[in-house]
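A protein record pairs a chain with a discrete description of its three-dimensional fold. The following entry can be read in just this way:
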Amino acid sequence: MLKIHAKKWGIKHNIHGIMELKISAWVGTIIGLLSIGMMPAVGAEKIKFSYSILEFSLSVTDLKTYAQEGKISSQLASYTKRLKPEDLAQLRQVLTEKQKLSPVAVSQFLYSEIGESMLKSAGQLIQTNSGQNGFYAIRGALILAASDPGGLTLLNAMRYFPSENIHINVEKFFALMNKLSTLKKQTNQALSVIEQQSITEASTEPPIDISKLPELYNKSGPFYWQKRTIALVDTNRSSLIGSIKNRVIQTDIYLPQSQAPATVVVISHGLNSDRDSFAYLAENLASYGFVVVVPQHPGSDSLQMQALLTGTTQQVFADPELIDRPLDVTFVLDQLEQRSKYDPWLQGKINVQQVGVIGQSFGGYTALVLAGARININQLHKDCKPESDHLNISLLLQCRALALGKNSPDYEQFQQNLSNLDLRDRRVKAVIALNPVTSSILGQAGLSRIEIPVLIGGGASDTVTPVFLEQIQAFNWLTTKEKYLGIGDKGTHTDLIASVSNVVLPSSNRFSGFSERNPELGRILLQAFSTAFMKVYLDHQTQYRPFLSTSYVKNSNRNEQSKVYYVRSLPLRFLQKLVRN
């Protein structure tokens, strides 16, 4: 039930009306956030909002009635009238949708360092009766709801919130909404500039007769290939603090049947993924004559997440993975080079001096570090503050770099050594970084060191690694002459992954629309562009260069339901202006 409490000294009617409209807008916006899954709905009997001398409350019973019966009470209607019908439908789904997570899985994630960081951030906005941070209340409610026979739903979690009322910190809410609004505005303006830049670039390029180019889209190449999985054991990795001793790297190798030594493309998966996540891409590249090498990174793969959810570890990923991942690739390449001298299956068939790397998310970071980027400790110290609201979820991952060396006798010296650590592998000649984390862990200082060709790809609907913060800015920080930026207007963080394991971090796919329509579209484009990119920069086959042109991508963007923004450069002043605003 909606209640309006005036203090004893009273308020004038006209002021009261204005404030009621403002509070109504705030509550309507919060319901909107619920409808797209961006904010946890927790509470007991009421969700309360306080502003100055006014206090408004939203009945949880009204939400429950709407979710279960589709009926909107008169009080709830005063807020939901600001929502579109599709938003209301999404709200009902989100309130009642059961999450397929066990109480052990929920507990393990929420007790991990990353989970606790997320809870503390959420608790600044969602508070208990006494106005305290809702950290413990939210965690307890979610774990108990997961243990309930009805399963973990947002409505069910409300039953277990250990407070009669849930208080929304309006000031924190305003700050969050302002940041969300600014980020959305920056992203839309950036996409507009990118689209105009693509038109300019296309107009200056030589005309391309697409009919005379080979068809790369959704078509395999002429090579047959074989796949083998080998376990490579690094016995010397224990020298790094916290690294796994005798680190076992399961590696898939796709070997084309070629007469000459073939160049190598390494695929580095993201957090909570594995060697199968990009099998479709590996198979396609192998059919075009590349030796494709897919290592599985222990400590940040699907097995690590499984260990977390079953209670055998308390880490979403092992902190040394920030160093171990690029070292995995270097070690695997070293091992393949040795094996090619005596293994009949590889002998004379692999060229590990010409290597390309494709990585997604955490793997995108891996690819960029192998290309020459360095960890930016100074930027991390600026961005990783306890009071951060973590609007950028990927910052949780990036800030873990500051935990490296925490048990060292001289932490500051260890961190300084980390910032000077060169993990570049000079055999790597070109990289593709998809949805990479970049903004703080690499930053401008780290990315500007890269000298080889780079393609950065992202999705405008990615809520895990926001495209403006993590990809568009990163592209402009690159100083290499050969660089490309591709953005899907409806792309999410996981569109390009063929298989996704148990996910505990928020997914951006649910209401994006693009994934439900046809996620294969982005994967087909990735296959074609990856083939052309590696043919040009590894095999030096210039006949594939037209596929990398802005005009070709514009002309081949045949799907009416989605758009790909693609450029090779951006006006520096536009980005600087957006960041300042």
